């Protein structure tokens, strides 16, 4: 058995031994909110946002982008499971700022092996076969952090399946301090409109 597999299973065994009252948790999040954030290994939403099991939905992908699939999850989150407030949280030093769609498409076309980066940019080993399938994926890269938060909040806000009374907050998590920094223009776009004022 591989080392990582062994470690994960050992950790899980001790977690399950102390599972306690968590067996009684209900499916809908008890604090009625959802977070969309990046998969970056330095971010732990349970810690930086004070969550425990059963509290909230956490939807993660590369960049924390409001992709069609992230929106699918958010719609299920409120429509079937009752969340009422959403956070979009991108972060400083995000890997999604280190390449463009063109870059990753080129790297994949050259080889499927892991590429490397240095001061001169990305390099591919060129080993084995590559594939042009990367051309058909929108990689959702970005260059401006605050702008990407605002763009994603706007995409969610304007989606026809998202009710106007759900507030959507836009934040940047600082990987150097652990702090959440609000992106005011995003939160402004994501502001809830009280249901009585909707005609
Ligand atoms: Zn990231």
TrEMBL record:
Top-level taxon of origin: Bacteria
Keywords from UniProt, A to Z, are: Metal-binding, Zinc
Q: What is its EC number?
A: 4.2.1.1
Keyword Metal-binding recorded? yes
One matching Pfam family is: Pro_CA
Q: Which reaction does it catalyse?
A: hydrogencarbonate + H(+) = CO2 + H2O
Cofactor(s), names only, from the UniProt record:
Zn(2+)
Specify which residues bind Zn(2+) according to the UniProt entry for this protein: 38, 40, 91, 94
CDD domains the record matches: beta_CA_cladeD
Co-factor remark:
Binds 1 zinc ion per subunit.
Gene Ontology terms, MF aspect: carbonate dehydratase activity; zinc ion binding
The Swiss-Prot or TrEMBL record describes its family as follows: Belongs to the beta-class carbonic anhydrase family.
Task: Name it.
Answer: carbonic anhydrase
The species this protein belongs to is Tumidithrix elongata BACA0141
